[in-house]
Records
---
Amino acid sequence: MNKNKAFILLLFNLILFCRASSVLAQGNYDLRLTLGSVDCATNTVCYDVQLRSADGTTWGLAGQNYRLYYDASLASWQSGVSTLPTANYQGFTLIQDIQNVDASATMGSLAFEETISFLNYTMDLSTVSTGGITLPADGSWVTTSQLCFLAADSLIYDPTVCLEVVWARDNVTDEYATSFVEVSEWIEPNNTQMAIGQVYDGLDASDGNESCLEGMCGYDYGDLPDLASGTTGINDYETYDSTGGPKHLIIDGLYLGDTVDIDNDGVPNTHALGDDTDNIDDEDGLTIFSSLDIFPGGTIKIPLHYVNTTGATAYIEAWIDWNGDGDFLDANEMVFDVSDPSAGLYDYIETMVPLDSNLNEQLGFRIRISNEDNMTPLGIVSSGEVEDYLIQVNCKPFICLPKGVSISRKN
């Protein structure tokens, strides 16, 4: 064989090798979960499932088979949806949903073996002849699907509790099953091959508020005095959660004044200032001036400020315990009951002070705002804020007379 033929044959073999290598090269991917949303009213937590190219190349995303384990004591799977183009991919197809199994006898590596759940779903290409989307070479994350879970109260409100989710993969979850996450690469028409997973980023406490949801949701409570005994009376209002006190789920865009903060429970205080222990003064919906003259038979006007950007009607209701018996159920004790589709229709609360009001005592004043109508002074509502105040009714000179005094006229 002459040198030219040998060189041509070598070059041909190199070309064949390069083509074979190109065809056989496998795309590498990273996989992760990121927090999408938290619905505090329903305890629904949704996570985005995301992929990216892990090898610096652009490659076509074909079918996917996702398998993961999570702690059933903290969450239960509710729903899933594909976020990939429907023109290229079939929808979310559930294969297995196995919840809350005691697998402690397995002696595996997962910390939540006694309450283990397994989820398996697929999303295939509609046709392998045309392929689907590509994972960019720059490593940008692409959201492929969304998973929603019903979260336990402890996950949402306890700062020490964090959700753990582990992707099924070799050398990590082998003890439970030998089926792992699979992602395939579209090479050319009617030609796909398995891609190789590099990083599997699940969820654990190291992910911070992605996994530990405390602070994502919260409630606002009142702070009138409460002996926690279930009784009512002077300086004894039902404020604690255990006594049925007022409780509002905090949402964006609906509150009294300029701010609202999260409470762990009712925070009774002799001066109704217990809600400000976090150095955030959120008792700012009403302005009760020290110069306000409150006397039996008089009329008082109290400036009111509130925010409603929810797009829904806000209902504002207020009560004053005129007779000091520790509740707001007596006649004339509801002093305000209005609705406002936006915010700003009402600048003040105006009410008459009953002639038989208790004098020289601290009387409870409770105001609530919510998207729910027909509130009572107690109980939970799904939005807004409650604020508590204390006011005192005093006699003007020569206006009030001591009870039991009789006046007779001498001729």
Note: Helices lie at 3-24, 153-157.
---
Amino acid sequence: EATKKEILKYVNCDPEKIKVIHVSVSPIFHRVDKKFNKEKPAILQIGTAPNKNLNGLIDAVKGISCKLVIIGEPNENTLKKLNDYKIEYECLVNLTEEGLFEKYQACDLLFYASTYEGFGMPIVEANIVGRPVLTSNLYSMPEVAGDSALLVDPYKTEEIRNGIKIIIDDHAFRNELINRGYRNSERFTLSKLAQQYLSTYKSTVN
């Protein structure tokens, strides 16, 4: 819906003619229970492009006992900040889909507070695996997350920091996010989305 609204800013089109169908998640992803590591949680960060807000995460976790698992290759300035702040981290590139799934299993929470996204598949992937999600309150991310994630302003370091600390410290809230995530992920199954495509094709023909 967020992308639909963006399109309508630039094209003269009847909004009723634009049908939004979400993306299905790879069947390789499934639930994997894990005891949360409260003492030193592994925070998964997908992507290192500017919109992925890695530097915002680094600023927010300064002084928090954690490990950042970064999918992608940070630039030199970002690496310097990680080392200056004495943040434990690992960077991984060229992962297979199976390799990415393994990182979801190993992590304790997903950080996905981007400054812009057209969709936000990692939110749903983390939902399915059973990991709490902290994401942005902008663009498509609230639409994809529903009530299954803690939403923050990606431009406010203290808000991100407080959100991460809440997920780490509040066992009941964390588990509620995980349970909501399982329910939310059901919206993105291949069978449901296939039915939406079929319905759209039929309405177009008719």
Note: The mean pLDDT is 96.
---
Amino acid sequence: MKIACISPSLIPSTTANSIQAVKACHALASLGHTVRLYSPGEGDIRWEDLTEAYELSSPFEISHIQSNPSLKRYDFIWKSLQASSNWQADLIYTWLSQCAWLAGQRGIPSILEIHDRLTGNMGPWFFRQYLQTKPLKRLLVITRALQNVLERQMHRAFDPEVMKIAPNGVDLERYQNLPDVTAARAQLDLPQHFTALYTGHFYAGRGMDLLMQLAGCLPDISFVWVGGKPDDVSVWQKKIKSAGILNIVLTGFVPKMKLPLYQAAGDVLLMPYETAIAGSSGGNSAEICSPMKMFDYLATGRVIITSELPVLHEVLNAKNAIFCPPADVEAWATALQSIQQGPVRAASLGNQARQDASHYTWRNRAQQALQGMEETGA
């Protein structure tokens, strides 16, 4: 099929929304479809730059569409749909309810991917109109918890033939043949101590305060924070120095291609989410999230210690992770020490995590999204 993907994310970018959109498109292309991604912006994008930023192998086109921010993306949506029509796309894949509805009005089959609650006055209206469109359609939601939230908002249950749960995914090939923790730390010139490692942004709700407190009370464990925007890294460097903590390493931004090696350097991989999680676009995703790092962590095959958030149980369980109450320093410290002193349990948790990762590849996700939609390209 010729699949036109329409995303409001800026590309290239290091935001989770941008990475997720590109990975979804890449998976569609890897299945043999002809894919063109439309995103806001100006100028051409070199494929070589995208390959380096996102680690891609199956090529697809990306076109920037100029838009006026004051028009709240409506001109971007209209221009993208017109470009898709001129290209004679068989299917529209989008993250915008307005776009999916307008595609339906044009008689074009569509897939709408939803990551958050419907907001504003028009968000629920466009979503409701989309559900009533006649052409073949598919609704993807990242968690069952989000499905429940949306059904409450819409006061209706979704047709199981239309709605599919599609958690985020991982490229397993990036996690093949990783070195053991000692070799990984040696390659990265990290301290050769038992290591608890975190990757991701330092946004509010990500548990950075907890990580600093843990480092303060567990001086024999090395804590490595991978990522963070430069301003955020600078703020935390000052806090850590002021507290006199010496066992935290802040790497700053790390290219995506190097992330698996850093994750392999951790004896334990941490997801210390709080009960309210802010994303790059704001809001609180603690009830409905599907963190991409969770799938990377699974594929790494290391012990995962995570906050006890109900939505995370859709993927994690007592066989592939350890759960601790959010912000409970004592509980987290106990969990870390138990793994430090229990290599047999650590190996069991890590092996199960690696096995479970195979269920969550971007390619499998794309196949599920297209199930029953292939006829559109006939």
Note: The two ends are 8 Å apart (CA to CA).
